[in-house]
Amino acid sequence: MSLAWQFYISTVLVYLGVDVIACWGLNLQFGVAGLVNFAYIVFQAAGAYTAAVLTLGPAKPARLGGFQQYVGGAHWPFPLPILAAGLVGGGLAAVMGSFAIRRLRSDYEAMVMLVVSLIATSVASNQVGLVNGPNGLALVPKPLASLVNLSPVDYQWLFVGLTAAVCLCVYWLVHVVTSAPLGRTLRAVRDNEQAAAALGKNVTGLRMLAFVLGGVIAGISGAILVEFTSAWSPGSWLYPETFVYFTAVIVGGSGNNLGVMVGALLVPVGFLEATRFLPQFGPPGFIDALQWIVVGLLALTFLWFWPRGVIPERRRRFPPVAEARAPRSLIRTRIGR
Amino acid sequence: MSTPADVILEVADLRRQFGGVRAVNGASFTVPAGKITGVIGPNGAGKSTVLNIIAGALKPEAGTVSYQGRDITGLPSYKVARQGIIRTFQLSSEFAALTVLENLLVAAPAQRGEKLWQAALGKQYWRSSEQASVERARELLARFEMAAKEDEYAGNLSGGQKRLLELMRGLMAGPTLLLLDEPMAGVSPSLARRIEQHLLDLSGEGLTMLMIEHELAVVERLCDPVVVMAQGRVISQGSMAEVRGDQEVLDAYLIG
User: Fold this and answer.
1) What confidence tens digit (pLDDT) does each residue in B182-217 have?
2) Under an 8 A CB cutoff, do A188 and B94 touch?
3) CA–CA separation, A108 vs A99, rounded Å?
4) What is the pTM of this model?
5) Residues within 8 A of A (CB atoms), B 155-184 only
6) Which residues 274-313 of chain A have a CB within 8 Å of chain B?
7) What is the domain extent for residue B43?
């Protein structure tokens, strides 16, 4: 494989990993717990800024040649910035959840989230001292790059491995939640809040739990992305990006971890990468603008015709008791012998 | 005020209004343990509001609800439920995208693996508790002749089957007091008779119930005592024969 192709493929794989992680987090909130978080991208952004600032080191004043201004710079060793990004994503979710989840019903909650997303972009762009305003942060050092001393293309593959490792950790987290009674209770809350509460379920607590876990996961996905691309600005997390993730979750199969992985492969990666290879036509930026429209149409088409997605939420069946007990009786006969 | 040993629930002087309408205006009554207490009254009498207040879905403006001698007034629904007071809904409230069996499993009280740390410990930690819940749920399904529907999505059930699910799910939660809001509303006469028989059987096993019901013939067969409400107040409490003889009841409900 030529170097150019290796670069391209490894880059796409890292993006895929980031999108898969992000979709798992959104699926936990939306697919499993029924939280319509239209500010999802803000949690990814918070994680990305956190990881960037904690890797860049303290900001240099302009008179000493510093060209970016931000707060709280530090030189933390890998993987601490990524973990911190998860904590910040979760912390932000706890704060936002405490007013949006505790007090509001789902449609209003969705509206509040959308507004929060718009405000957050505006604040990050205009409060230049916070995270360097509209120019964003750049030249974020790559993790481990100074230690491992690899060629650029080998480093790319190292990063793919690192992303895959984080994917596995996040998958473990979403899997233990969704496969346990906890996941079933969250789905019950999604289907009927009042009935769940009447059966002794702390609905607010459960919704907060899903919201915070999703925030942690979104923060981690942002951290991986910024450590890879080395740059992050308000343009990286405009509110339509949230709808790309929603589309991925809906197309893949809301409520199914495997399904949303396929959704991440199809929508943010497959679909948006494929349009790169289209011959350019129309005025400059025409195809980019068209992408948003087509993603929106894709979401609508699936909601209309295949609302449960490519790989729908699994129907949980339980083995008959006799079958479930079989291994136990086998052990008994062995001891008897 | 001390409560006699056989009174499981006592509501005193409950008040609640909605935008100037006094839905409940000083309702007081008691629920004896081990019996089916019926609540009757014309539409708008405040029956459902009282039930919602007891269950914690609404907060009263005044008055108290005490359960087994403890004041539970204004507790949120889930805390009321954890005390053993389980309510069913007038409109079916199934978890539509869960199977029938899963609907029952959700209701299992104090199940393992429902907290994050327990889930993180893996299936080994919660499997045996889950298995016990599945067995209990299957017993209920067999008892209510719904075993064949175990793997069906609850959203696909018929109206009558949803009523049965509602009842089974309430029982799965292990109630000491079951609040029933018109458990036979909108079902066929034959299913209504079946539900009636189930309620009688459960009562025979010692379960205490408080039931809102419109069909007086049903109330007559199942309920003793009967609480009669009109215009937000309790106007009579006693056996069906007693309340039938009450002039105020006749004026408010049975005739007027």
Assistant:
1) 999 889 999 999 999 999 999 999 999 999 998 888
2) no
3) 12
4) 0.92
5) 169, 173
6) 313
7) 7-94+173-254
